[in-house]
Amino acid sequence: MYRIKDKRQLELENFVLPFGGKLNPKNRWIRLARLIPWEEFEETYAEHFTDSDMGAPAKPFRVALGSLLIKERQKITDRETVEQIRENPYLQYLIGKAAFSDEEPFDASMMVHFRKRITDEMLREINERMHIEEVKKKREKEEATEKEEHAPEKNKGKLLVDATCTPADIRYPTDLSLLNEAREKTERILDTLHDSQTEKGKKPRTYREQARKEYLKVSKKRKPKGKMIRKGIKKQLQYLRRNLEHIKKLSTETSLQVLGNRLYKDLLVISELYRQQKEMYDEKKHTVAGRIVSISQPHVRPIVRGKANAAVEFGAKISVSFVDGYSFLETLSWDAYNEANELIRHIEKYKKRFGYYPESVHVDGIYRNRENRGYCKEHNIRISGPPLGRPPKDTEEYRKIVKSAKVDEIARIPIEGVFGVGKRRYGMARVMTKLKETSETAISMTVLVMNLEKTLRDLLLSVFHLLQKALFLFEKCLNNRIITAG
């Protein structure tokens, strides 16, 4: 530990500035750089690369993670991240540079590769390694202050668990708009296949102008009726089916490799989208398994939330546990799931992390089913909220239950605050990344950054308390001298 501190101190002292001088060790980016065990994860990050000598050398882990931290903490774009690093010596120190340079540290497109290489699992591991020890130290300190001897098997601490949706950056999907977009993309695919033919025959008819007019006839209506929407969907399905048949015929004459990766991927997604929409139209239903709501992001699924402002959201559903001020991302899924079924697993992970079960679990109503209550009772864990069954007739006992339930709801406020901060201050309200793996990295990065901010606040608070204590002792000594002199 001391060697790491000495190394960081040497890095700071030896950092070269163009006009002389030294970096301020109290700067927030310097403090942040000292918190992260960069060397521990360098080997894990290096596994993503081959031993080939071809091409430019890979960027170190510190450059990759440091850049992602800057982007998330500042809530800026990839290009702006590179510009701010280029302009700021403290940011260059954070990513491991030995001297200030006015040149771009890397191209902005590298940020996408950083998000692919630093996976969701890696970020969760970093988060746990750093902050589980913080929680353990805090509890050991509290126990030493209280002078209590806890048996190893005794339950300790509070566990707060909740779930939310992290919406993706897609427009609100409707069946009609999705089919129209799919039709337009198949027209582009048909054009590409036809243009790449050596012996060009007659171009297949797509009726694209007529199809566009049919779509606008419905979409421009302020409140189109159900029959009109259904009729519009039927026509778009017919145009899309014709285009897919033409593509199938042309693929026998021309290889689909001419489409490139993007158009070929779109073709696969559109084929599945057509199957789903045809099934829903024929069976007159509005749900289907694995429903596609975005052609560019086919991994995104509708998540029914039942909230007043958004009954349905489109993105990843996550479950987060909150322990002594630190958040841990427990579940991240693009498919909807019942969060109540995850509670037992979250409690077992708490036991694995800290070596004991929590004293109490604070959750909302959906988690309080019989299975979860039975499990908590078996492990001597108090679950928040009123007990099952009818309320007692005794007025005094009923008041105690109501008061206890109210206290439990107040205890749940911090985890609601985590979601609020994550969505308002950071990027959870709208995940701007497009790929499935990069979106997962962005969500995990938000949780890590919030925990790092919490650690920085605690460090500043501890420094303030030390100064306050030193000032108190100084005043006490001064008063004693005055009394002695008198």
Helices, strands, pairings?
Layout: H1 2-14, H2 28-35, H3 42-46, H4 61-74, H5 78-87, H6 89-94, H7 110-117, H8 120-146, E1 158-167, H9 175-195, H10 208-219, H11 226-251, H12 260-283, E2 301-304, E3 312-323, E4 326-333, H13 343-354, E5 360-362, H14 370-378, E6 382-383, H15 395-411, H16 413-424, H17 436-485
Parallel strand pairs: 1-5, 5-6
Antiparallel strand pairs: 1-3, 2-3, 3-4
Structure description:
- This protein is an alpha/beta fold and 486 residues long.
- It has 17 helices and six strands.
- Strand 5 (360-362), helix 14 and strand 6 (382-383) form a beta-alpha-beta unit.
Q: Roughly how many Å apart are the termini?
A: 49 Å
Mean pLDDT: 87
User: How many strands, what sense, and barrel or not for the largest sheet?
Assistant: 6 strands, mixed
- Shape type: flat
Radius of gyration: 29 Å
- Give the helix tally: 17
Structural class: alpha/beta
Beta-sheet strand percentage? 5-15%
Helix percentage: 55-70%
**Assembly level:** single chain
Query: Tally of extended strands?
Result: 6
Which spans have pLDDT < 50 for at least 5 consecutive residues?
none
Order of helices and strands: HHHHHHHHEHHHHEEEHEHEHHH
